[in-house]
Amino acid sequence: MDYKAIRKPEAQKMKVMPNLADYEQVSKNFRWEDIHKELDWLPGGFLNKAHECIDRHAKGSRRDKLALLWEGKSGDRETYTFGQLKDETNRFANVLKGMGVVKGDRVFFFMERVPELYIALFGALKVGAIVGPLFSAFGPDPVRDRLLDSGAKVLVTQPDLRRRIAQILPTLPQLKHIIVVNKGQRGPNPLSNGDLSYEALMSDASSSFDIAKTSMYDYSIMHYTSGTTGKPKGAVHRHMAVIQQYATGRWVLDLHEDDIYWCTADPGWVTGTSYGMLAPWSNGITQVIYEGGFRASAWYEMIQKYKVTVWYTAPTAIRMLMKAGDEVPKHYDLSSLRYINSVGEPLNPEAIVWGLPVFNQAIHDNWWQTETGAILIGNYPAMDVRPGSMGKPIPGIEAGILDDNYDQLPHGKEGHLAIRPGWPSMFHTYWGNQELYNSRFRKGWYITGDRARRDESGYFWFVGRTDDVINTAGHLVGPFEVESALIEHPAVAEAGVIGKPDPIAMEVVKAFVSLKDGHEPSEQLRNEIMRFARQKLAAAVAPREIEFVPSLPKTRSGKIMRRLLKARELGLPEGDTSTLEED
Ligand code: ATP
Ligand code: MG
After folding, report:
1. Which end of the chain offers a freer environment for a tag, N or C, measured as fewer CB atoms within 10 Å?
2. Rounded distance, CA 381 to CA 254, Å?
């Protein structure tokens, strides 16, 4: 596919001078120790994410700066300054301390995106607990799996959500306390037997607290992966992850003091904590949190209403905006936006091309994983965007492309995407599964499980997950390339591509396609899309079969679950579907 690079003016001529104005220069001789100095640290060399994100600002010139602009799903609004967040998180830290929560205990959250989630989570970090936010759309089983696996001692939740998981709660021997936040309810907190009221506990708690002496190596957060390729794994991160979350907030999100930042991800997934909490607040930035779900008009309205300047979202959301059509954004003033980022899945070049006139700028793709804790490869404001490429490794990161023996391949070759271990936000284990953790490291590299290639100029191009790559007549085909070509067709909203076993070719490429509003499946359209794909792609790569589907199976974090498409196609067991989004 032939997409022209989107050229950037020189840094000096840009509206805002990018934080990372000279990528090459900063990358040369880079040392993480220099970033360490930009953090505040606790006396004695201790490090705590809550201090870096809240108290540090509250004790300085940002005390009265707005940290959080919250809009609830029914339109209620609340705001919190860094000073207020400090007091509230101190209160919650005292609540937990009073219950005997100590360093290393797991405190989990099953909540909507309400301010109390943010307050309780940072309060728990202050006592040195390991926090675990769970996505609020989960049913009882995925919640039970995660609470059981992590051995959570405290669960913070809300009345409706508590009701949904009532039957599993007695089956969790390590769960000692359930704290219920009465958000979004009229009347008093409808507590069940033995539950504690957040409001009552908070009103009795002091707003002074001495943050636990956590070292940079202490565990701070665990996140279960999205479950796209199999059963979700509990990746555990340390307080030192904030060093990289801070740095990438500056370099990749290009956060500046006066920005209004909106990350659309839920804290149940790693983007919603690393970039919906830690990166913006360690940089002292005001952020918007919207409790409501996706609706194109509501999202455009958020940007307009809050004058969002920097926006971090995901390909699935962008494809849904595309699906809603070009008319909708015309009704909103999106001119405040100065910088847009995307993560979670490959960003189809077509999405960037679509976004150019709508947002008046390129969407910047970046790559990372739950395990990596922060962005490792990204596009930067001062660097040309090559649509379809996830960009270049951040300063301090060495990324390699390896063959099946885990030896490095030259530029232009496809292989395993691997990273030299030792970056600050690297996961430290999979909870309770050190063996699996160890298996991810080979010959001095962390093996990401993704396939990619690097071009002559050092840009990385995502090919597909190792598990999803298709072997057809001796060619290795990445689903991304085929899906991206398909969605260039004006009728196609989304595409998911798999390899279907074939006696001659080993596998053939099969595409599942969902159509944009206003298009109906027909034999004629199928042939037309097939022809279209053949023009765009080499014959061996173009889909042999196309099946129309109303929607694609996705994880709740918005990723296409190709393994489910395949299992269903072949009539095989579906495996773990705990993260499957139900329509
Ligand atoms: P599981 O590990 O449970 O199968 P998952 O890998 O989807 O789930 P996450 O850690 O949330 O869980 O997602 C990381 C993965 O998402 C990456 O390994 C990659 O496959 C994909 N990904 C993220 N960002 C990008 C991107 N910019 N381009 C291409 N792929 C991306
Ligand atoms: Mg993964």
Report:
1. C
2. 7
